[in-house]
Amino acid sequence: MQIEYLADYPQHISELAQLHFKEWSYLRPGESVDERTTRLRASCDRNAIPTVVVALKDGKLLGSAMLLAQDMDSHPQLMPWLAGVFVKPEYRKRGIGSALVKRIEAEARSLDISTLYLYTPDAESLYGRLGWSAIERCQYRNTDVVVMSKQLS
After folding, report:
1. Domain total for the chain?
2. Across residues 26-54, what is the average pLDDT?
């Protein structure tokens, strides 16, 4: 498996947008797959904010992670964010999600970012194992979430 910039593999943008839509459309009510595709395409940069990385094996898309300036409009004071950590169900529990998180952490460090944030409705234990700490439990878009942070330096 390798982790690469989505910008270098644009053929996966449409598939990834559909996967993200299926997984998280409830957090962005009213957003279409086409809008998500456009937003994902606009996030394709390298060693910058925003950026998207993808896990690939033999050219096949396994998962993704993103580094974004903002991911939770109710918390504009917190930035930047780890977001879009997704692994296809058939590839879960193999360390791919952890590798994607670590890659985004490395991207953030390379940009001299000292603190990174995320929110999750259901993966607090994964992030806790990776050294992230819960800083707030709240409702976001009618969903119970935990906001977490990690000191990178």
Report:
1. 1
2. 93
Instruction: Evaluate whether residue 128 is within a structural domain.
Output: no
Tokens 């917190």, residue? 78
Contact 20, 86 (CB under 8 A): yes
Provide the 8-state DSSP code for 44. -
Give the largest CA-CA distance in the chain.
40
Does 93 fall in a domain? yes
Banded model confidence at residue 153, pLDDT cuts 50, 70, 90? confident
pTM comes to 0.94
CATH, residue 62: 3.40.630.30
The chain-wide mean pLDDT, for the chain, equals 96
DSSP-derived secondary structure for 54-103: EEEETTEEEEEEEEES-S-TT-TTS--EEEEEEE-GGG-SSSHHHHHHHH
The domain of 56 spans 2-113
